[in-house]
Amino acid sequence: MRTCQMLYPVESSTRRSVSMDGMWKFSLDWKQEGEGKDWKNGVPGEERIPVPASFQDFYTDKEIREYTGDVWYETDFFVPGEWQGKEVAIRFGSATHCVCVYVNGVQAAAHEGGFLPFLAPVTDLVEYNAFNKVVVKVNNELSETRIPCGTTKVLKNGKKMSKPYFDFFNYSGLQRPVKLVAWPKEHIEDYTVTCEFDGADALVHYTVETTGEHEVLVELYDREHRPAASAAGKEGVLRVSDAHKWDVGDGYLYEIRLRIMDGDVPVDEYTDRIGIRTVEVKGRDILVNGRKVYLKGFGKHEDSDIVGRGFNIGVMKRDFECLKWIGANCFRTSHYPYSEEIYQMADREGILIIDEVAAVGMFRSLMNFAEASSGKKTSFFEASTVPQLLAHHLQCVEDMICRDKNHPSVIAWSLFNEPETTEDSAVPYFEKIFARAREVDPQKRPRTFAMIGNSGPDTCKCCQLCDFLSLNRYYGWYMMGGYEISDAEEAFREEMDGWAKKQMNKPVIFTEYGADTSPAEHKLPSVMWSQEYQVEYLEMCHRVFDSYDFY
């Protein structure tokens, strides 16, 4: 069984998926004794916290909120007797950042990377028709050898502290749904779809990966459950007559049903929903279904009161209603892949996603590097940790694309956020990341990265790799704010003139801009932090945007 299997768990005639969410036993490993005292067999104490959720914000104790190190979870789960003969696993939506899973005292899985799912195979570790115990050790320490980048500092009192090279809190724990799943020994491991149009018809090219040699039947149904197309074989084409395209604001989805057949008997069955659409970059335009789309939206975070970065279905619903209310059609998953349920919602709502891997903090002197205060000039991509970091980054890109490749809402991949790009040492690293994204994405979506302010037209050595440029720009806020806003506008225009002179013939979008604002702050004349200044700032930015024909 592949531990990186990315198919979202479903119920079918052959598959089972049982939620393990709820109150789990929980303990912080203050003395780093969990391994030595065999907590894998059972977590001490009676403390319990909700899963999924970040652990930090449940408590009033600062020492808990700032805790860095191992935390341990435990719960019991029942495995039905009729599951004997099937493959059984525990699927974690994520565990932030490094994890070991023990079932009945035996290690079932280990995983690095805090924002993508993984499986813990337990077929041979569980008792059937009985309760079993799972213990999960999660470590939230940051490192320069994996993304997101950071380090862990030991204070003089011996306690550890996370030092992120990014500007958001290091929420951690079991932050996404956990499911107990079962499927047949011979089963569907993965599937892929790509689309093209032939007049009013759509051609849906598909491939299905299975663990056996039996025939595969693929069927497509429209929203009214009417048959739309069918084909046999592990590879093929579904011709959909008069296809209803998935589009911005029109999240029309077809049901795809995949079955492994032994004669007339289904061996395995998996169902999903797909949208029929194309996406490409042509000149200075991003095209969805061959038509130019102007991206309007936000860089979000998974972040809410009490549960931190834990998946919250109510907050998700509210966020999408706010997106529609304000007229947005797109968001970037800044700065990590989000919970799968959010992509499913975007599919249904017709909202576009720029899907971002957790490659944030790749800047030698931006946040917490010691060299920043010493004045010593160093390059992030010359560090001795880069080979390990690159291997992890490549794996995360591959896993993200494997997970999200069939979502019609996903129109592009963002492969870094605000990395260091002004040194030649960055180029080979970037080339490998961009090549891997193109290699593993069957739809060959556009690729980009969000550029920090010093990655300008005359300084960025990696921008040519992008299919479209993504600029994070804060003229008038982090630089030349307040009364200097007139100089900010002039500097902004000077940079944009520089991009125009490069004649890259690529779309340009602004993935970040804005001014922090207090909801209660009103001032005339405007001052920074007031709502009036925010309006003034946005009007300035939009004047600049509208002066250029990049996009």
Topology, please?
Blueprint: E1 16-19, E2 22-28, E3 48-51, H1 62-65, E4 70-79, E5 86-92, E6 98-103, E7 106-112, E8 118-121, E9 130-139, E10 150-154, E11 160-164, E12 178-184, E13 188-198, E14 201-210, E15 215-221, E16 227-232, E17 235-240, E18 254-262, E19 265-274, E20 279-282, E21 285-288, E22 291-292, E23 297-299, H2 313-326, E24 330-332, H3 340-349, E25 352-356, H4 371-374, H5 386-404, E26 410-417, H6 426-440, E27 447-451, E28 469-472, H7 485-502, E29 508-512, H8 531-545
Quick structural overview:
By secondary structure, this protein is an alpha+beta fold. It is 18% helix and 32% strand. It folds into three domains: 169 residues, Jelly Rolls (Sandwich); 87 residues, Sandwich (Immunoglobulin-like); 139 residues, Glycosidases (TIM Barrel, Alpha-Beta Barrel).
What does this structure look like?
The protein has 551 residues and is α+β, with helices and mostly antiparallel strands. It folds into 3 domains: 16-184, Jelly Rolls (Sandwich), CATH 2.60.120; 188-274, Sandwich (Immunoglobulin-like), CATH 2.60.40; 293-378 and 391-419 and 449-472, Glycosidases (TIM Barrel), CATH 3.20.20.80. Helices cover 18% and strands 32% of the residues. It is built from 8 helices and 29 strands. A hairpin with a 2-residue loop joins strand 6 and strand 7. The radius of gyration is 25 Å and the shape is globular.
